Fold each of these.
Amino acid sequence: MLKKRIAFLGVGNMATALMRGIIEAGLTRPEDIVISDINKERLRVTSHELQVIVAKDNREAVKEADVIILAVKPNDMEGLLSEIKESLDSKKLIISIAAGITTSYIEKMLKKEVPVIRIMPNTPVAVKEGASAFSIGEYVSQEEEKIVKSIFGAVGKIVKVEENLMDAVTALSGSGPAYIFYIIASLIEAAISLGLNKKTATILAIQTVLGSAKLLQETGEEPAALKKKVTSKGGTTEAALLVLDEGKLKETLDKALKAAAKRSQELKR
């Protein structure tokens, strides 16, 4: 168990998913999480569901915590940092999950030698299957790196990257669950058009994606090698893959990730 009090400034979908994940993983107790948000109804619902503590405001949340997770929208970051900077000191760890916001920007706004870690998690942290990548600011120690690895490692996989690669991370794993949900929904609709009922199509589509990912993970084989094993010459899989190639699925996914990365870069400005 992490013997730190954690404050979440901003209680959106990602923050809620992360709270639920670390509580269920036994990393922290609900009473060691304090939350703050301008949406009072969201605070009420989250506190009721997860039994976490509601702070009077952002400054109170910061004063009561050892680890502060900034979970507001990028456009709201400047105002939030201005509000809390007087409540911070070098003993508190700042973790930002806001897309496009750099550690140097946060350090510049705070005007203090406060440790800042930038991380991009994704929503499967709610079921302890998240994919997170982090980069560190100027004043981060090894002990503080261990803290962020403990928090996000409890709810999935975590890797360290150079900060100039965070836009790529955002495009791949940060936004990635939405791409997979889109593909699964499309597979279900196509299966229904072939005569399967929705329940059966949903079970088969979800399990196919889940099983395929697990096969990749456990065998350690390259995706292309496993694809080849499934594909028989002149068979059904080959017929389907030819259509995907004709539709330029690979090129479309490439464009999608580049669009997401571009938007992440724009958020910095």
Amino acid sequence: MNILISLISFIVTIGILVAVHEFGHFWVARKLNIKVLRFAIGFGKPLWTYTSKKDDKIEYVLAAIPFGGYVKMLDEREGDVPEKDAHRAFNRQPVWKRFLVVLAGPAFNFIFAIAAFSTTYMIGVNAVQPYVGAVIAGTPAAQAGFQEKDKILAINDVNVASMSEVRLSLLSEYLGNPELKINVQTKDNEAVTRTLNLSSIKLLADEKDYFAKTGMGFWQPPHVPVVMTVLPDSAAAQAGLKRNDIILSYDGHPAESVKTVTEYIQQHAGKLVALQVERNGSEQTVSLTPKATEVDGKMIGRMGVHLAKKMSDEDRKDLFFVRHASIGEALSRGVVETWRMSIMTLKVMGKLIVGEASIKNISGPVTIANYAGISASIGFTVYLGFLAIISLSLGVLNLLPIPMLDGGHLFYYLIEIVKGSPVSEKFEAMGAQVGMVMVGLLMVLAIYNDITRLVG
């Protein structure tokens, strides 16, 4: 079922974002009186076709392979053009018109991202207060003086209100300067500024959680683990563990958190573990043997359950809140988040090129499908935020000066503006071959990373 949800969510995600991108090209071309012949979402065999009854008789196509789309315009380089329509052919247009048509695709991806981010804030985003959790000795966070239950208020004067905003701002500011000024409110309600120097570590050197590398986590109130899902044929299923069982202890140790239970199970692969659980108001003992699983060359134990955190109503109210915004503030936040994340994406690409970020951070269709399924399962606003991030990433990627992408065509047009004439067909054809190789290698790398994540 999870695979089906991920697949459907992925197809919907790609369909929406491709439609947005291609509609940008389509809409601007129509506004500039360039004749459009076909608007297609997907490639391969058409599943649905409609031809408009208006003068241009545009063909609208939904095809079987959802990985892309295109807008076909009248062009003398692709066939004979009736003399009466020659003035509307794409190749006959002045360079500024062609530039705008090509630019419109990525531009609409950014516009969609702004609208999506803004909508999530108007609806309300479930958020977590940015309290600092346990601080590991000897790490940059410890050296900066961070204490448990510090509440992060701003990073380099950029205000933050939630855990997700802290993560985004920390990475964004780190990419500009690894020395960060962080304003916090201590658990004693004192306002303090701490200097977090991350110059000694590379946050993106691998795909592990970059925030954890600072030496601090996010605070979680005391809670007990509750079983949400028992996987079939797992150690938990064989032992009789059930959904909604509350784990009270393991081998006599109090179950203080999901983390402590998980770590103990991982350390006891193939060894009998006695769990004291509460089921329907009564306590009982469940004995199980965690199955040994190899992860990163090391054998760890897994019992085959998904655990959730059961905490008091008071702690839940203190930690979780809904982030709302008025229409004006939501639009402003949508613009700011789109801009900041776009710049951050470019900076990360720069780090990849110079070797300061691992290529393992590059994700392909399998990872995107997985996150699409997860976000869709959580709720509409989470999925909408996911769409916004993927949309702006597509916008940034398409603006890179790589032949085959929109940015490559825009680069050709800039050359044309400077030299006063179009680039030669030979030069453009050679660029297309180079671009095809570059995009192909990028896709192979992304899919390879996806496969290694699955195998790992």
